[in-house]
Each structure stands twice: as C-alpha cells, then as structure tokens.
Design brief:
It contains seven helices and six strands. By secondary structure, the chain is of the alpha+beta class. The protein has two domains: 87 residues, Ubiquitin-like (UB roll) (Roll), CATH 3.10.20; 97 residues, Orthogonal Bundle (Helix Hairpins), CATH 1.10.287.1080. The strands form two sheets. It has a four-stranded mixed sheet, with helices on one face. The protein has a two-stranded antiparallel ribbon with strand order 3-4. α5 runs antiparallel to α6. The longest helix has 22 residues. The chain starts with a helix and ends with a helix.
C-alpha cells in the first residue's frame, strides 16, 4: 500500500485527525471519531474501521465487542488534510445507544425541507433494518418471515399493495391513500433489502431523470 497520501495529512499535536464516517449506500453520516496514523494504516490493511481513543489513549476497532463492525469501502481526505471520511457499509448500528447513527437527534431544521429529508431518512433507516433482519432474523419478525419466504412472496406483497394503492387512489379518503402508499413503500423496501439495492440508487435515478 502506498502511504504517500498519509504524509500529506495534517496530524494535530497529538498525532490525530478527525474521522467522519458515512454510509456508502444512503450517504448518511453515522459517527465521528479520531484516528492516528496506525489506526488509518490498520483500516487500510483490514478494510475495517479502526480509531484512536483519546480517553483510553489506545487503538480501538469499531464493533470489536458488539459485532457492529464498519466495513470500509473508501477513505477520502479533505482539502486541508486534517479530516478523513470513511465511506463504510455498517454491519449494525453505528451508535453505542443502538441507533443507526450517532446523529439521531435533531437540534434544528429549516422549515420547508423537513418533510422530504425526514422521509428519505426513514427509508434509509428502514432499509438498514431489513438488512439487519436478513443477517440476524429475530423470532416473530414480519420482515424476517417475508425474507425467509423468498423473493416471489415479497413480489406478491408488493403487487398486492400496489393494487391497494390504485383502489385507494380512486376514493376521496386521503388517510386511506396515505396508509396504502406507506404499506407499498414498506414492502418495496423489503424487496430492495432482499436484493441489497439501497434506496440511494433509486433516489439517484430520480435525480438523473429530473435533469
């Protein structure tokens, strides 16, 4: 591995750089931590996210005890060379609280864009949940049962919900239409999870068509 790019980084007085962790599929920011050179080198060698704990003064592997490791697809560095971006595929929640992202609390949001952004966020979270159910099916889970029944059953449910949307769309009952659309999106997300096709690719296609 060529390490010339590491020499261009601006390590602070402790020999650290900030690391932002981003989901490779949805683009969601999952967490922020710190890394020294050894942590970055180990991340590159193992393709798993390593960091440096400032409180313990030692390296740590994300998910070493919980199993919620971060598989690293790419490392980028910013124009100043003092911040890294780990682009990852998480194997579980990134936050120690069990939330998918450490940034799960909203302090402020501009009016107007809130609904659309929140909607995408919910679909990304639902997709991640489907992947979790696929990897570790809990007893009694509807999603896990659908996945176990196979793609044909999932496609059947998507078709059924699409018909329900058409029927609801012909009525004047707005709440019914909203509910049926939510059911369709839910089952579409299960299908995407079964295919391991993230919503980000769907949104990217919509963006491409808008142009």
């Amino acid at each position: 591995m060529s390490e010339s790019w590491l020499d261009r980084l601006r390590w602070d007085e402790r020999g650290l750089v900030a690391v932002v962790v981003q989901d490779a599929d949805g683009g969601e920011v999952l967490m922020q931590a710190w890394a020294d050179r050894e942590a970055v080198e180990r991340t590159c060698r193992e393709a798993r996210a390593w960091f440096y704990s400032r409180s313990r003064r030692s390296l740590w592997l994300k998910g070493e005890t919980s199993g919620n490791v971060l598989d690293v697809e790419e490392i980028r560095y910013d124009c100043d060379g003092d911040t890294l971006l780990y682009v990852v595929r998480p194997k579980g929640p990134a936050c120690h609280t069990g939330e998918r992202s450490c940034f799960h609390r909203t302090g402020w949001r501009r009016e107007g864009d809130a609904a659309g952004e929140a909607g995408q966020h919910i679909l990304h979270e639902l997709y991640a949940l489907v992947l979790q159910r696929k990897a570790s099916p809990p007893p009694g889970s509807y999603v896990a049962r659908l996945l176990a029944d196979g793609r044909d059953r999932i496609l059947q449910k998507v078709g059924e919900e699409a018909v329900e949307v058409v029927i609801a769309g012909k009525s004047e009952d707005r709440r019914r239409l909203v509910g049926e659309l939510a059911d369709l999106l839910f089952h579409a997300t299960v299908l995407l999870g079964e295919r391991e096709l993230p919503w980000g690719e769907v949104f990217a296609e919509l963006e491409r068509r808008r142009r």
